[in-house]
Amino acid sequence: MSAKQAFIYGINGPVVTVKNAPWLQMLEMVYVGTERLIGEVIAVHGDKTVIQVYEETTGLKIGEPVEGTGAPMSVTLGPGLIGDIFDGIERPLKQIENSSGGFISRGLMPDAVDMDKKWEVKITAKEGDAVMPCSIIGEVTETSLIVNKVMVPPDVEGVITKIVPSGTYTCRDILATVRTKNGQEIPIQLIQKWPIRKARPYQTRETISKPLITGQRVIDVLFPLAKGGTAAIPGGFGTGKTMTQHQLAKWSDAEIIIYIGCGERGNEMTQVLEEFTGLIDPKSNQPLMNRTLLIANTSNMPVAAREASIYTGITIAEYYRDMGYHVAIMADSTSRWAEALREISGRLEEMPAEEGFPAYLPSRLSEFYERAGYVTNLNGTVGSVSIIGAVSPQGGDFSEPVTQNTKRFIRCFWGLDKALAYARHYPAINWLGSYSEYVDDLAQWYEENVAPDFIEKRADVVRILQEESGLMDIVKLIGADVLPEDQKLTLEIARVIRVGFLQQNAYHQNDTYVPLDKQYKMLTTILYLYDKCKKWVNEDAIPLSQISKTGIFADAVKMKYDIANNETEKFDQFKEKIDALTF
Amino acid sequence: MNKQYMGLRDISGALAVIEPMENASYDEIVEVKLRDGEERLARIVELTEDYAVVQVFEGTKGMSLENTITLPTGKPLMLPLSKEIMGRMFDGCGRPIDGLGPVYSDQEMDINGKPMNPVSREYPRSFIQTGISAIDGLTTLIRGQKLPIFSGSGLPHDQLAMQIATQAKIADDEGKNFGIVFAAMGVKYDVANYFIKSFEKTGAIGRSVIFINTSSDPVVERILTPRCALTAAEYLAFEHNMHVLVILTDITSYCEAVREISSSKQEIPSRKGYPGYLYSDLASLYERAGMLKGKEGSITQIPILTMPNDDITHPIPDLTGYITEGQIVLDRVLSQKDVYPPVSVLPSLSRLMKDGIGEGFTREDHPEVSNQLFAAYAKVQDIRALASVIGEDELSETDKLYIAFGKAFEKEFIGQGREENREMTLTLEIAWRLLGMLPVEELDRISPDTIRKYYKQ
User: Fold this and answer.
1) Which parts of chain B have pLDDT scores under 50?
2) Quick one: DSSP state of residue A200?
3) Contact at 8 Å (CB) between B192 and B212?
4) CB–CB of B46 and A10 under 8 A?
5) Cβ–Cβ of A346/B268 closer than 8 Å?
6) Is residue A107 classed as helix, strand or coil in its secondary structure?
7) Are B152 and B304 in contact (CB under 8 A)?
8) Phi and psi angles of residue A350, each rounded to the nearest 5 degrees, phi first
9) Shortest CB distance from A96 goes to which of B46, B117, B238?
10) What is the mean pLDDT of residues A224-228?
11) What does the domain layout of chain B look like in residue ranges?
């Protein structure tokens, strides 16, 4: 018996206490009971050590053994992760299905990656090379879209004393040996381990300068997100948080997507799995699943593993960032994660702060969001991790603690609105309450890559929507008929912007994803129409109703369906059509 | 043989503290014998080397520190199951109460169940025709879905649930493989009786399994009632390939029971005194709906909850809405206008509907029609708000058409008879007739092709 053993003293839900085990460290991973359930040390009080267990504790008995592993809760990182689906502590759900059928049993610990799968490894380093942390020594084609770089672990530095030639290897094989400064020989494999609660190091954090293009107009134009940025999507139930997350996972131009279903519905994960396997990425003509990794800890799976799931997700994201990829994380939903924190905190009888949430909720949230960023890695490559977190505020009330604290640590806020969702206006992102602090950072990129007047046009749209909201206050009291013609026009154009531009149909093949140049053309066409109408109304005194009769507004609204993504020349024809109108 | 434990150390609410129990396991069921011979069941909720806390299902009334003997059973609560449970009636923790004797079981299952592996789930796609336009047309129910009814006291949610249970075409084989599992938690006796009588009247009783915990029955049992019901449903669906419709009523009473027990355990409350784990607790019920790959059966859930004070932001409807795949909301104002079923269309939603309707499922125009009805009815609400300020006479011509559309929509589309069973095509026909009241340029959610095919002014 190698490891020292402790014995269970008390059990309360997912929290297990052991006595007289002073060797157990904080955050050390432990095996609990004869079934060897996985747990983590979360507190030490005198002779009592408190462990949270990542599985159901039903059936555990007093006096069963608890065995430490000597290492913190870690995940395995290596080729074979992409395209697969895991639970909150990186157990592959497909393997679990093979061993326990349709329902998840306890005490299973299959390897996260297939250890016996043969990979074609191309070695790029040679004996005698000095390696830094994260230095790349080889390459593996992981999926048709992702080349996995074999890296020296972030905490190893030295000289390669032995290295294998290129060839076929499994994750068990030792590819190289590195001798460190103090003479240790460290074996390098295809896989490495990293503790989930510790951010992987990088060299420098770069200034944000590139947008994460999502193909969703309300986001790309009004509230853009940057690569390496953070965004939150709060919204009551039924406002389309998950739908928006799915759209971003499908269409955003990140190279790798990590989708964390944290305490959400089982059917939703099934849907992502099915849909993404079938969907083809328009840019690469490969199945979307080849760049996606799913972490599913659904609402009925153990609550402690839900708490771990977002750390598991971000650690994997950082691993791929270190290879030089742009990774986007969708966490759906961070509120469920906060609730898991609250539940564990309650079992520990900690003093609660707001609404029963522990006082350390804000610091945990900021730790998580601060792991996003656009960085130069230790090996010199450049990569990014962007985080998009859904928030499920109770009663749709944005003043609750999770939304409020999240707001402090993110820079892009896409607030979803119940009234819009009721009218089936999706994505139901409220244009008045949402914001993006990245607009200024990204202005230069938009001006150089889309159009020099892009930011100006964006400001025009924002202004029209603001004016509309002011006018609607009047309309609600006295009706639209009494407004002067030019204000009626503002309302009409605002409607065209809302229905024809901001509203986007995820099920329409032309509309589900829209490239930036078409977005820009749509925008300028609508503003062109506005300018023309302003002239007719103000200078030629033509009543708005007469312009409406031509059907030009209805046509402008339908532009999004009528003009395919690759036929942007049709916008010029549309402008000609506007010019041709006579009264 | 297991040891017996004499006496108790502490009693508070439904909880009792016993001396440390050797060999007992967490969540195990224990028997508590009173001196007068009464036997009660209890569950271990906290276990340490120094003491054990048990939760007594029938309550601690009449128990003292010295008149009890506690016996461990060595296992969590198991429900004995066989196909014979069809047509039977049980109490809240699965004991027969119809006087027909015990169930001869071929299998016992842990009522807590195990989480379904998301990889093994079959994504639900087959729609269930309920014959109710507001549901079929706008919030289509899908086999394997969990779709709650958010109601208020005094609204006809029971009748609606019953109508769904009677008319639902769930199985493809004319109902041979169709079963109903009904769980009443803390409901009034009359409500339980209404369901039983209705099952008898429609002949559904023979394919129903009924679990009853009325409001006078022990609170702790209420926690077990839905778990027993869902275990029975899982058994029928996945061992006997049946399509099972589970009706759970009333989730509000269930949540109140959870709160009562939580507070007697002196746990830290979150909103409105409900424990922080209410979300996870509810999820452990609702997530047991669904379908599995390679199995023919399915579990469709219709939980009913009464929103306290008709408040949809109350924690119970709120947390439910975050877990379930949509909701059907009933509205008091519509009910007062004598519209049955009083489905409040705008906040109602079926999340799985998008993948189960349209071409190949219902009819190709269905998605666009439902979208348009939602949008048009949302506009009706805006115009009504305006009309209440400036008067209907001052409205524009188009707005007046909307007002007329709104009235007709509520009366003819949402409203229908309590036994009226509408085919899907009839529902869509009514929808098109109503949309015909609006000028064609107002229909901005429908493609020109579909308009050409179906729109008649």
Assistant:
1) none
2) P
3) yes
4) yes
5) yes
6) coil
7) no
8) -80, 155
9) B117
10) 96
11) 5-76, 79-354, 366-454
What is the DSSP secondary-structure string of B99-124? SS-----SEEEETT--PBPTTTBPPP
Q: Which residues contact B450 (CB under 8 A, 6 or more apart)?
A: B364, B365, B368
Identify the pLDDT of residue B171.
65
**The 3-state secondary structure of A27-73, one letter per residue:** CEEEEECCCCEEEEEEEEECCEEEEEECCCCCCCECCCEEEEEEEEC
Instruction: Residue B280: list chain A partners with CB under 8 A.
Output: 263, 299-300, 303, 339, 343
Helix (H) or strand (E) holding A509: none
**Can the peptide bond before residue B341 be classed as cis, meaning omega within 30 degrees of 0?**
yes
Is residue A85 less than 8 Å (CB to CB) from chain B? yes
Place of tokens 């099920």: A507
The length of chain B is 457
**Torsions phi, psi for A366 (to 5 deg):** -70, -35
> Angle, to 10 degrees, between the axis of helix A570-580 and the axis of helix A552-562?
170
Are A59 and B28 in contact (CB < 8 Å)? Answer: yes
Enter the ipTM.
0.86
Angstrom distance (rounded) from CA A512 to CA A564: 11
Contact status of A557 with chain B (Cβ, < 8 Å): yes
The model carries a pTM of 0.91
| CA–CA dist A537, A527 (Å, integer) | 15
- The half-sphere exposure of B323 on its side-chain side, counting CA atoms within 13 A, is 28
Do B313 and A339 make contact, defined as CB atoms within 8 angstroms?
no
User: What phi, psi does B201 have (nearest 5°)?
Assistant: -60, -45
Q: How far apart are CA A381 and CA B240, in angstroms?
A: 57
What does the alpha-carbon distance between residue A307 and residue A52 come to, in Å, rounded to a whole number?
10
Architecture of B5-76 per CATH?
A: Beta Barrel (2.40)
**Which A residues, 245 through 284, put their C-beta within 8 Å of a C-beta on chain B?**
261, 263, 265-267, 269-271, 273-274
Q: Which residues of A372-394 are buried (b: 16+ CB within 10 A; e: fewer)?
A: bbbbebbbebbbbbbbbbbbbbb
- Check if A512 contacts B (Cβ < 8 Å): no
pLDDT over threshold 50, residue A220: yes
B79-354 maps to which CATH number? Answer: 3.40.50.12240
Residues B344 and B332: their CA atoms lie apart, in Å, by 9
- B27–A58 C-beta distance less than 8 A: yes
Q: Which two tokens stand for residue B355?
A: 């993948």
Which of A241, A245, A253 is CA-nearest to residue A313? A245
Q: A1 pLDDT exceeds 50?
A: no
pLDDT band at A188; cut points 50, 70, 90: very high
Sequence-distant (6+) residues with CB within 8 A of B433 are B412, B456
Residue A338 has pLDDT above 50, yes or no: yes
In total, chain A counts a number of residues equal to: 583
Give the Cα separation of B327 and B147 in Å (integer): 5
Q: Of B42, B48, B56, nearest to B20 (Cα)?
A: B48
Contact B352 A267 (CB under 8 A): yes
Q: What is the pLDDT of residues A103-141, one digit of tens each?
A: 998 888 899 999 999 999 999 999 999 999 999 999 999
Cα–Cα separations (whole angstroms), residue B55 to B58, B223, B338: 9, 11, 46
- Residue B194: how many other CB atoms lie within 10 Å: 15
d(CA A316, CA A327): 10
Q: Which of A269, A339, A507 sits opposite B354 (nearest CB)?
A: A507
B-contacting residues in A 454-473 (Cβ below 8 Å): none
| pLDDT over 70 (residue A565) | yes
B79-354 has the same fold as B5-76: no
pLDDT for residue B23: 84
